[in-house]
């Protein structure tokens, strides 16, 4: 069979305060068109349908409408799971009814074990989960991390494998070795750690959600679809789209989705940015992230640039290390606060704290400690 | 046909901080039992399924489970509408799928005009609405209040009347002449005004939601079902339950629902309340509203009473006028603030402001006005 693999729609998301309703609807229209042109037998949505556990009414209406169009109007079967951004309980509403029209939605672990059967393929829909849910389900206190929990879940799934069919896993987690962008919640911190890809090798295809880069993982049969839109500056150069997967014989091609309004990074000087040759090239509806090459102070630069780029979403200095580039994972939290501060200052400014700055910092830290009763 | 008429479940509601999950589940179990014993052909839920537009995850799971049991497990058709406490958009999720199992849920006005057809009865499911929705639907700018809007809606419904069938309206509003309790949102203020009952006379039965007293309106064929639980002290003496309605020949009987834990008002002195003969009579799980007959000051009385009545929900003095009794609708807001305050003081204490109290009040009012720049 042939299916379309997408994920991370994040309906309801805003980009630095800008509503993305139009962009999301335009991307969805393309997904529909691709599904029809490619004559897919099903559409897989691998989690994070919503951006928030508590989506707004408008977001609820928007997603409901999309699912209605895809499933009820176009008649495409849907295979979906909840991601870490979704509220499993809220997303679950109505799911017992959805099966009647082949809209298969799984938000709880117990249901993940039962495959959804197609003529030549079994789909296992594994929602985002925490280890405690696996401990409860299997009544096994040893399932303390995501790796041991997933190992147990996959073993259980394999008992249901029909040898005459292909086996597809739909899941939402971080696979070890993947590369990240800035717009994904770092869910592996405090709960969901990286999953080793060796646990996934028995499936004919693994349709992943969570990471927004389709090339986050370089494997033939274990893939992130990536998001449909660029949700952060670090995604500016990524190609967005969906995978079209044939299960037998296996084939996987990427079909691009073109953003209605692009996200563009401009690394320029202020004078270049405000020259007509420059700003006339950029649609006023594009989302623009500016990396300013100037070193001098420019008064009210963000507001001034907004006159030329109405949808400016961020402003950074190209020289001087950026906040985003700090390797958060390698911060040694065992250092004392003064040393942490000194390191941070150095990271940001490439300079050392002066004697006077050290004195101010020491005073502030000591005041804080007193307030906290330390 | 025979149907069960209920409304105002208010799933997720708390009673002065106490969770009502257990009470709501127990009431629901009785509704299920009544539906089976009475062999009803359908269950009508006339709005306010949830207590809030944004119900908690637990409330969402609880209501979903109830609907699944009633509709999918017992196989009872459901006819439901959104009330003023529900978010139409959120409640609507999945409704296109629900029809397949005869769960008919209407949250928008356009769908209200189309009857749901049963063998001998047509149901018109009219959700809670605002006049602007009728203006938009009918493109008629003259529909400025609820009365003219409803008149127009009913005219439209009547064009769909099948003369061979009975006609039932399910709606959620305040019908003129009904008596209120304290736990209903006063929706007629600022938008939804009272509906004259003459607009409803062409229906064989009108199944109403909104008011929590089954006897709020004394009409044979236009009835509130009332809520399933007592949600305020003013409901302590009301009988709760559901109507069982036969459409042909018309018959309407009330079947009580017994609260798992009752709400009791005790009008007693402190000494009486803390005597074993008294508190031993009252289950520690009952919700107790105390009207204290003492006039003297009793230190820390609420906390002391909680030792005997763990679920005490309110404490008032039986003598001295109560806040609830003030006739809010007759407050003249055109008076100046000082006069309003003096009237209020009189309402509460039956005394006049002293010269010194007047001076303090004048100082506070003048300070407030300055802060607001008046």
Automatic annotation (TrEMBL), chains A, B:
GO biological process per UniProt: DNA recombination; DNA replication
Entry keyword set: DNA recombination, DNA replication, Endonuclease, Exonuclease, Hydrolase, Nuclease
Domain Nuclease SbcCD subunit D C-terminal: 260-347
InterPro entries (alphabetical): Calcineurin-like_PHP, DNA_Repair-Maintenance_Comp, Metallo-depent_PP-like, Mre11_N, SbcD, SbcD_C
Annotated Pfam families: Metallophos, SbcD_C
Organism, scientific name: Liquorilactobacillus sucicola DSM 21376 = JCM 15457
Gene3D superfamilies, alphabetized: 3.60.21.10
Taxonomic lineage of the native organism: Bacteria, Bacillati, Bacillota, Bacilli, Lactobacillales
The protein, known as: Nuclease SbcCD subunit D
Domain Calcineurin-like phosphoesterase: 1-213
Similarity remark: Belongs to the SbcD family.
Record text on subunit structure and interactions: Heterodimer of SbcC and SbcD.
